[in-house]
Structure formats: structure tokens, C-alpha cells
């Protein structure tokens, strides 16, 4: 035994659609341990295409995990503040994996999949790519032995996002158009079982589709053969989610941030608050009452220069009082925007603040998020 | 007029004692959509290798270094309103700044067009 880790060269891994992206001119970069396409024709064009038509994103780096076993719902509830018992089957919910101090270990989506007599109930979860193995380690440690956990490494995950996503997908898979935002279900495509939810990370209507790895290329081909659909890289995924006001784990969320400071209070469900039975509930509920020291807010930055992660929020004397956690040029806004943690007294929309980046001061205004309105499909009008 | 390139993908076009500086077509392609350019002010003194300008794409901020020493004559004011000129015409309308060279012998350490093309081909 040695008291320090050996140097290990960790090889960057290829996902099921690796060759598919390269053949289509995707510029591949290392991300979360995998080769991923950062862009095709350009981030700006891809971003705007997604907002007006439909973009196909490969998010197979994310962890797709299923949980089953006696008492799976209360077992998972012990790790997060979601009301899973109150969730209807085939409905998805956003939640947060919390540590014993109330810090955020990851943010995730979970869906209750309908019970069958022989198999019992199953919960399907999607977690972030960079954190999936840590999440699994944490959950294995804290879940009872009766719960089995399966990382679906034999499945790709695609997201089809944009106002015309429903037109393109329903042409291939009739029936998906009847689902509403955060509804999910099992569908057949050419003999392959797909798990599809009407959800996403762009603020647009759209779907997230779990597809067996061996069918991923053919399915991606079928989608991009639709006139509405172009492949989109991770670069536009980031600018789209920033405009939608959606936090990115590892940047806007971390073990140092709590659900209340991150302005994700909606993830603290009423039944769970009343029972105070999620990790660090006492601390989080006290913070919810008294207000957090700092809070995640949206910023409209003056001028044209992007202010990015790592820039500081400063007071009149130049002292650091907060930090920018995401930022960049917003193609659909036409101006730089950012997310930052600021002192609670400055978190009201309309508050003017100063930012410092590489020795230069930028003026910004706290603004309500999203920066671009969400256009989720919540049912026929 | 002759043109030289740096390993950091700046170009400089020489006309007498005046040099015009920009970034190469290869560089703009790597950066992607340019959304902001900060050019140096008139009169600013630059040494070879100094950070002279900032170029920001949707993805990231990058420094542009001065290929030679000299005094800035002007920055390209058109880039303030239309930073995408760097994408559409990087080696023409998308120039960054002009300067008066203080030591033309510094050009000897730069690559000519043929050498730069060979350099980029290996990247």
C-alpha cells in the first residue's frame, strides 16, 4: 500500500454514436471522460436552429440508472427531497441528491415506471455524466441491500429539442405527441424498446430518448433524415440551458451549494418539508425560513463582452462578495448573460451590481430567470 | 506587401513601417462564432508577445499577442459593432489593429505564408 494514488492514465472513452458524430463533421472534445461533439456548423447557428426547429443532442455520457426492489420509493426518498410516493407512474420529476450537510451532490431526473406483477416497481433516473460514478458510490453506500441498481451502459441517451421536435418524432413514433411535459413512456421503434420522456434542458418543448446502443446509429439517422432536425453539439446545449435559467452541475451547483441558495426551493416538496425526513432537513428548512447568505440569480451584463464562470461580484470597494458560476453570450437574447451567487440583499431583480473579470469591471443587473421564456408543452390549449 | 504569421495564429501585413495585425482563418475557425473583440487604443506601446487584444467566442475568451514591438496607430473600430467580421473576413476586414514597427528585424523570427500553412497542416 502507498499513501498516495499512483498516476493513472485514464483513457477517454467513446460513446455509441462516436463514429456517427465524426462522420457528420462534429468537432470532438473530451467531456466527462468521453469524446463528445462540441459543435457541428457553429454554436450560434445550432443554438438558433434548436430554438426555431429541432436539434438532436447526444447525451449518452449521462448516467441512466434503474432501481428496483422492495421499498425502492422510500429508500430513494431518504437521499433526496422529492415526493416520489406522490408521483404518478410514467411521470418525471427533478430532484437533488443531497449530502449530510445539505450540499448538492448532483441534480437529476427520476421517473416511476409502472409496476408489473413479477418485476415490481422500478425507478429510472438520469444523473450527470461527470458525477455518475460518485453518485452510484453514494447510493450503494446509503441504499438498503434489497435495492438493486443497474447502470444502463448498454443504452444511448438522445435529446430532441425545439418547437418542431414533436413533428419529427411523432412521424417516426406515433403517440409521443399525446404526452405532456414531464410525462414518459415506453415506445417501440422498429422492434427496439425506447423509453421516451417529454422533457429536456433547453427550455423548449422536446423529448429525451433512451435507446439501446445497437440501435442508436439507425435511430439518429432516422431522426436527422427529418427536415426539421439537425445534430447539435454540447456548446449550444450550454448556451440554450443558460438562457433557460437551468443550472449546470459542477458550475452553478456543487456540494458547497444548498437547494435554498441555488434557488431550487421547488425541489423541496411539501410532504417532505412537513416530515423533515430528507438529508440535512433541519439545516435546509432553517435556511428556507431565514434566507440563505447568498442566492443564485440571473444577470444581464451591460455591453457586449461575455462575463464567464470565475468572474467575481464586487462591492463599491472592490471586495469580492459573490461569484459568477456560468456566463456567456446568449444568442437568442443577443447580449451577454450570466448566473451568479450574490448576497441575499442584492438578489432582487432590478438590483444593479458590479462584476470583475481579468482586471476589468462590468456592470450588470439582476434579472428574473429564464432569460428566454420556457415553451414546454403542458397540454392542448 | 508581405505577410507573416506567429505560432499563436496572428498574422501581420507589412506596408513600409506599418503593420496590420489580425488572426488567421485557421484561428477563427477554431474559435467559432466571435461575439466580442477588445482592440488596443491608439498610442499604446506594445512589445513583441504582449497581450494586445482580446477575442471572445461563444465558448471562450482568448488573448491576441502582438507579433512585433511598436506603437498602436489604431484599433479596428468596426469590430465593436460587428465582431463577426473576424469570422467572415479574418485576413481582411476583420483586422484587429495597426502599429508602427519599432524593430522590423523582429519579423525574421516569424513564419511566412508557406511556413504557416505547413505549421497548420501538422496541427
From TrEMBL, chain A:
<dbReference type="GO" id="GO:0006546">
    <property type="term" value="P:glycine catabolic process"/>
</dbReference>
<dbReference type="GO" id="GO:0004047">
    <property type="term" value="F:aminomethyltransferase activity"/>
</dbReference>
<feature type="domain" description="Aminomethyltransferase C-terminal">
    <location>
        <begin position="295"/>
        <end position="372"/>
    </location>
</feature>
<keyword id="KW-0032">Aminotransferase</keyword>
<dbReference type="InterPro" id="IPR013977">
    <property type="entry name" value="GcvT_C"/>
</dbReference>
<dbReference type="GO" id="GO:0005960">
    <property type="term" value="C:glycine cleavage complex"/>
</dbReference>
<dbReference type="Pfam" id="PF08669">
    <property type="entry name" value="GCV_T_C"/>
</dbReference>
<dbReference type="InterPro" id="IPR027266">
    <property type="entry name" value="TrmE/GcvT-like"/>
</dbReference>
<keyword id="KW-0808">Transferase</keyword>
<protein>
    <recommendedName>
        <fullName>aminomethyltransferase</fullName>
        <ecNumber>2.1.2.10</ecNumber>
    </recommendedName>
</protein>
<feature type="binding site">
    <location>
        <position position="208"/>
    </location>
    <ligand>
        <name>substrate</name>
    </ligand>
</feature>
<dbReference type="Pfam" id="PF01571">
    <property type="entry name" value="GCV_T"/>
</dbReference>
<dbReference type="InterPro" id="IPR028896">
    <property type="entry name" value="GcvT/YgfZ/DmdA"/>
</dbReference>
<feature type="domain" description="GCVT N-terminal">
    <location>
        <begin position="19"/>
        <end position="268"/>
    </location>
</feature>
<dbReference type="GO" id="GO:0008168">
    <property type="term" value="F:methyltransferase activity"/>
</dbReference>
<keyword id="KW-0489">Methyltransferase</keyword>
<comment type="similarity">
    <text>Belongs to the GcvT family.</text>
</comment>
<dbReference type="GO" id="GO:0008483">
    <property type="term" value="F:transaminase activity"/>
</dbReference>
<dbReference type="InterPro" id="IPR006222">
    <property type="entry name" value="GCVT_N"/>
</dbReference>
<dbReference type="GO" id="GO:0032259">
    <property type="term" value="P:methylation"/>
</dbReference>
<dbReference type="InterPro" id="IPR029043">
    <property type="entry name" value="GcvT/YgfZ_C"/>
</dbReference>
<dbReference type="InterPro" id="IPR006223">
    <property type="entry name" value="GcvT"/>
</dbReference>
TrEMBL record, chain B:
<feature type="modified residue" description="N6-lipoyllysine">
    <location>
        <position position="59"/>
    </location>
</feature>
<dbReference type="GO" id="GO:0005829">
    <property type="term" value="C:cytosol"/>
</dbReference>
<keyword id="KW-0450">Lipoyl</keyword>
<dbReference type="InterPro" id="IPR017453">
    <property type="entry name" value="GCV_H_sub"/>
</dbReference>
<comment type="function">
    <text>The glycine cleavage system catalyzes the degradation of glycine. The H protein shuttles the methylamine group of glycine from the P protein to the T protein.</text>
</comment>
<dbReference type="InterPro" id="IPR003016">
    <property type="entry name" value="2-oxoA_DH_lipoyl-BS"/>
</dbReference>
<dbReference type="InterPro" id="IPR033753">
    <property type="entry name" value="GCV_H/Fam206"/>
</dbReference>
<dbReference type="GO" id="GO:0019464">
    <property type="term" value="P:glycine decarboxylation via glycine cleavage system"/>
</dbReference>
<dbReference type="GO" id="GO:0009249">
    <property type="term" value="P:protein lipoylation"/>
</dbReference>
<protein>
    <recommendedName>
        <fullName>Glycine cleavage system H protein</fullName>
    </recommendedName>
</protein>
<feature type="domain" description="Lipoyl-binding">
    <location>
        <begin position="18"/>
        <end position="100"/>
    </location>
</feature>
<dbReference type="InterPro" id="IPR002930">
    <property type="entry name" value="GCV_H"/>
</dbReference>
<comment type="subunit">
    <text>The glycine cleavage system is composed of four proteins: P, T, L and H.</text>
</comment>
<dbReference type="InterPro" id="IPR011053">
    <property type="entry name" value="Single_hybrid_motif"/>
</dbReference>
<dbReference type="GO" id="GO:0005960">
    <property type="term" value="C:glycine cleavage complex"/>
</dbReference>
<dbReference type="InterPro" id="IPR000089">
    <property type="entry name" value="Biotin_lipoyl"/>
</dbReference>
<dbReference type="Pfam" id="PF01597">
    <property type="entry name" value="GCV_H"/>
</dbReference>
<comment type="similarity">
    <text>Belongs to the GcvH family.</text>
</comment>
Amino acid at each position: 500500500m502507498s499513501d498516495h494514488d499512483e498516476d493513472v492514465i485514464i483513457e477517454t472513452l467513446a460513446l455509441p454514436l462516436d463514429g456517427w458524430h465524426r462522420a457528420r463533421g462534429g468537432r470532438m472534445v473530451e467531456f466527462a471522460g468521453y469524446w463528445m461533439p462540441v459543435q457541428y456548423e457553429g454554436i450560434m447557428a445550432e443554438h438558433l436552429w434548436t430554438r426555431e426547429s429541432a436539434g438532436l443532442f447526444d447525451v449518452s455520457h449521462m448516467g441512466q440508472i434503474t432501481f428496483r426492489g422492495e421499498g425502492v420509493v422510500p429508500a430513494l426518498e431518504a437521499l433526496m427531497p422529492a415526493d416520489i410516493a406522490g408521483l404518478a407512474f410514467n411521470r418525471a420529476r427533478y430532484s437533488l441528491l443531497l449530502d449530510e450537510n445539505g450540499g448538492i451532490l448532483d441534480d437529476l431526473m427520476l421517473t416511476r415506471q409502472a409496476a408489473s406483477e413479477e418485476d415490481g416497481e422500478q425507478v429510472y433516473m438520469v444523473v450527470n455524466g461527470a458525477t455518475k460514478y460518485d453518485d452510484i458510490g453514494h447510493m450503494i453506500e446509503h441504499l438498503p441491500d434489497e435495492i438493486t441498481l443497474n447502470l444502463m451502459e448498454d443504452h444511448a441517451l438522445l435529446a430532441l429539442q425545439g418547437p418542431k421536435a414533436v413533428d419529427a418524432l411523432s412521424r417516426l413514433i406515433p403517440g409521443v405527441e399525446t404526452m405532456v411535459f414531464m410525462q414518459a413512456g415506453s415506445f417501440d421503434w422498429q422492434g427496439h424498446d425506447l423509453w421516451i420522456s417529454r422533457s429536456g434542458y433547453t427550455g423548449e418543448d422536446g423529448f429525451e430518448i433512451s435507446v439501446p446502443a445497437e440501435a442508436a446509429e439507425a435511430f439518429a439517422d432516422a431522426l436527422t433524415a427529418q427536415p426539421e432536425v439537425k445534430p447539435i453539439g454540447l456548446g449550444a446545449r450550454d448556451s440554450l440551458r443558460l438562457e433557460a435559467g437551468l443550472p449546470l452541475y459542477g458550475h452553478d451547483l456543487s456540494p458547497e451549494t444548498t437547494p435554498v441558495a441555488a434557488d431550487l426551493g421547488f425541489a423541496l416538496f411539501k410532504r417532505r418539508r412537513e416530515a423533515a425526513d430528507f438529508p440535512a432537513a433541519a439545516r435546509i428548512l432553517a435556511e428556507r425560513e431565514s434566507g440563505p447568505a447568498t442566492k443564485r440569480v440571473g444577470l444581464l451584463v451591460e455591453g457586449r463582452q461575455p462575463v464567464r464562470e470565475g468572474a467575481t461580484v464586487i462591492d463599491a470597494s472592490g471586495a469580492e462578495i459573490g461569484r459568477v458560476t456560468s456566463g456567456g453570450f446568449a444568442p437568442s437574447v443577443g447580449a451577454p448573460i450570466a448566473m451568479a451567487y450574490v448576497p441575499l440583499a442584492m438578489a432582487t431583480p432590478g438590483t444593479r451590481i458590479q462584476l470583475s473579470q481579468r482586471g476589468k469591471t462590468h456592470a450588470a443587473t439582476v434579472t428574473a430567470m429564464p432569460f428566454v421564456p420556457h415553451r414546454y408543452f403542458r397540454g392542448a390549449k | 506587401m508581405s505577410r507573416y504569421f506567429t505560432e499563436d495564429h496572428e498574422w501581420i501585413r507589412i506596408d513600409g513601417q506599418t503593420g496590420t495585425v489580425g488572426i488567421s482563418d485557421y484561428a477563427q475557425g477554431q474559435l467559432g462564432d466571435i461575439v466580442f473583440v477588445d482592440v488596443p487604443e491608439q498610442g499604446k506601446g506594445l512589445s513583441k508577445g504582449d497581450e494586445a487584444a482580446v477575442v471572445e467566442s461563444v465558448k471562450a475568451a482568448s488573448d491576441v499577442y502582438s507579433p512585433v514591438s511598436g506603437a498602436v496607430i489604431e484599433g479596428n473600430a468596426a469590430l465593436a459593432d460587428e465582431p463577426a467580421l473576424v469570422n467572415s473576413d479574418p485576413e481582411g476586414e476583420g483586422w484587429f489593429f495597426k502599429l508602427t514597427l519599432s524593430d522590423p528585424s523582429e519579423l525574421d523570427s516569424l513564419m511566412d505564408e508557406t511556413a504557416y500553412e505547413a505549421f497548420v497542416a501538422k496541427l
